[in-house]
# Entry
Amino acid sequence: MSIPIFQVDAFTDKPFGGNPAAVCPLDAWLPDDLLRKIAMENNLSETAFFVPEGEGWRIRWFTPAVEVELCGHATLASSHVLYRHLGFAGDRIRFASLSGPLGVEREGDRLVLDFPSRPPVKAALPEGLAEALGATPPEFHAWSDYWLGLWPSPETVIGLAPDFKALGRVCPHGFMATAPGGAGDFVSRFFAPACGIDEDPVTGSAHTVLTPFWAARLGKTKLHAFQVSARGGELWCELRGDRVRIGGHAVTVLTGRLEF
# Structure
């Protein structure tokens, strides 16, 4: 048996930047255990699978370790595959997911995700977090198991060097380090060792939290963001009520078939 596979760099307009995602279009669902094995084989932060459903597709995302409820860069990559490789010509792609309905539209040369807004709230710093990060954030906020630490400068965020084993024991999902400024309105990094990803290069789902956070801080609904990982990524974000629009580019770097 074989299935198609595409590797797409998301939130970048150049190969080998942004965040690489594997995309596997399916005619029908394979067993979950096989989906997990494929994601482990790909060994990327996310592998996306989608099948036709209703007027769109149902999409699922797997890290090498777990299935996740929401993933931005692999949704952007999947939409790129539908538009660029599978002949979809509609105005809007509709995905059903564990996080509810998601949409993707083309705006010029960018793809724009329509995701739920998830504003964080200020909270007490969890025990052991500062030690795992090697630094204490002046402010700590959280939305469910998405944690956010605010620092005053991009340089501090760039210089963080967490103990990933310790962070994986303390933080149940992902930690966002963020600061105002840089080349845009704000910068961030995202660490998720508990999910098998020490540092995610560019994280669309994190910006469902970061966008309402910075919109409130900066008093504006349209934001230009950079994720300052080693690969780096660029995002155009907009808060619209209880939804967040997250735009970016995508580039195909590999096409082929998985044989098993």
